[in-house]
Amino acid sequence: MTTIRDIGWGKIILLGEHSVVYGYPALAAALDRGVMMSAVPTPAGGPLRIDIPSWEMRVAAPGVFDEPGQVRHHNTITETDHPAARGLAAIADALGAGRPSVSLVGDAQIPPGAGLGSSAALAVAVARALARYLRLVADNATIGAAANASEEIFHGTPSGIDVALAIAGGAGVFRKSTGLRPVPGNALRVLVGPSGQPRSTAEMVARVAAETGGKPDDPRLRELAALTDAGTTALVGRDLAGLGAAMDRAHAVLRELGVSTPVLDDLVTTAHAHGAVGAKLTGAGGGGSVIAIAPREREAAILAAWRAHDVIGFVTTIGGHQ
Fold first, then answer.
1. CATH code (residue 18)
2. What does the pLDDT average to over 128-156?
3. pLDDT tens-digit map of 68-91
4. What is the pLDDT of residues 7-48, one digit of tens each?
5. Is the model's pLDDT at 278 over the cut of 90?
6. How many domains does the chain have?
7. Residues acting as catalytic residues
8. How confident is the model at residue 158 (pLDDT cuts 50, 70, 90)?
9. pTM over 0.85
């Protein structure tokens, strides 16, 4: 019998991070990889848990045990106060699943904490796998609500874009008021460089709020929105130079808002020095990853240059795998 694996896609934001929090559009796309999850019975009636060896993550949903912290089952220590453990509990509660003896065993193809939507990919994969295993009726809206309950634990007040893409895949323009609207077009190759710097989405959102006074009409937020519109037009028209120019300017604005770092700036500069037509940070900033677009014959040089900075990048295909 083949074990079914449910997926939550990873994501990148091409344009519009931070301005999206204030109601402006963001151009984003799912990666061609994410988090795969299979649900199996926990041996001997053990806890509802997540096990992802590649992330060194082993957590159990709190709520069953007398004290939070850790639980020992079959001589294995499992955390119950990790954010993912509390996120698992939130997902189970949103689905009305209780605390069944289910192990959610994962295969993560993206690094955690790198601005690639890993927590949303995890949440969607968990929600899908748990609902399937328990034979719950769960459409995309139900899965999204459950995953967003987990995202609130990780990020406070997330925009919703990560979960939308983790569910739907593809590429689209996202607004908080209208959700994700698909963008037509063929697949695009994008280079991704995880910096390895730890980051906090909530801290970066707070930094931008302090920088702008929380005012949606801040000219930098308006410019990020205009760049999103221009970049979307360029993407649909396969105008890579236009898309690259929008990405470059967006990185400069994000740097002005205080969410870039010297490491991210250096990776962007390195990408340009080796042939990129556009490069920027992606996601909240303060660490995480950079993205770049380049002629195919220059991709290897960019990846090699990043590797010289101890960054192991990869090429992903966005927008065309669903």
1. 3.30.230.10
2. 93
3. 455 444 434 456 678 899 999 999
4. 999 999 999 999 999 999 999 999 999 999 999 999 888 899
5. yes
6. 2
7. 162
8. confident
9. yes
- What are the backbone angles phi and psi of residue 77, rounded to the nearest 5°? -85, 130
Predicted local confidence at residue 64, as pLDDT:
47
Per residue, the 3-state secondary structure of the chain, as one string, reads CCCCCEEEEEEEEEECCCHHHHCCCEEEEEEEEEEEEEEEECHHHCCCEEEEHHHCEEEECCCCCCCCCEEEECCEEEECCCHHHHHHHHHHHHHCCCCCCEEEEEEECCCCCCCCCHHHHHHHHHHHHHHHHCCCCCCHHHHHHHHHHHHHHHHCCCCCHHHHHHHHCCEEEEECCCEEEECCCCCEEEEEEECCCCCCHHHHHHHHHHHHCCCCCCHHHHHHHHHHHHHHHHHHCCCHHHHHHHHHHHHHHHHHCCCCCHHHHHHHHHHHHCCCCEEEEECCCCCCEEEEECCHHHHHHHHHHHHCCCCCCEEEEECCCC
Same domain for 221 and 134: no
Alpha-carbon distance 279 to 290, whole Å?
7
Tell me: do 28 and 104 sit in the same domain. yes
Residues 190 and 170 in one domain: no
170, 230: one domain: no
143 phi, psi to nearest 5 deg: -60, -40
Q: Phi/psi at 79 (nearest 5 deg)?
A: -75, 145
The residue segments making up the domain with residue 232 are 184-318
In a domain, 109, yes or no: yes
What angle, rounded to 10 degrees, do the helices at 299-307 and 262-273 form? 140
- The pLDDT of residue 82 is 86
Q: Do 110 and 148 belong to one domain?
A: yes
Domain boundary among 174, 203, 235: 174
Same domain for 271 and 167, yes or no, is no
From 114, 144, 174, give the residue that closes a domain. Answer: 174
44 and 103 inside one domain: yes
